[in-house]
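Thread title: Can someone regenerate the structure for this chain?

I was given the following input by a collaborator and told the matching structure tokens would be attached. They weren't. Posting the sequence so someone can regenerate them.
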Amino acid sequence: MNRIKSYLTIISTLLCLGINSAKAQDCTLEIRVGDNLTFTPPQLSISKSECPTVTLNLTHLGNLPRNAMGHNWALTLAENAQSVAQAGWQSGLENQYMPLDDERIIATTDIIGGGESASVVFASSLLDAKEDYTFFCSFVGHFSLMKGVFTVNE
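Best answer:
Regenerated them for you:
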């Protein structure tokens, strides 16, 4: 009987660890780009209550270098996305096509080329479930096609 209780305790502990691992994985978002102007997936979502921090991993599956077909991932309020992207074009590739010290930027990765990846970690406390957010690529000319919806749930 004690042996059965021990096994049940072990199984229960393992199940709890598995649930906690699944929750932790929900706070890591994966997005892919290539030698085209598409984010996959085009929508991302997080639960603010379950994810105090969010990790976004960007992977470029294409072949072209960053100066020819580079991509990044940037997050702003939807109302600021286009103006931030356009301001970034002035900053140049050496500044990741992002305006320097712009408080409208919530999170951004570096520009990457084919075969490269980049990550950014940010606090979900920067987000409000009542707001609309857009993620986009700020490489010159990419904004019109490379943008998506970022949803925040409480």
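Residues 2-26 form the longest helix (25 residues).
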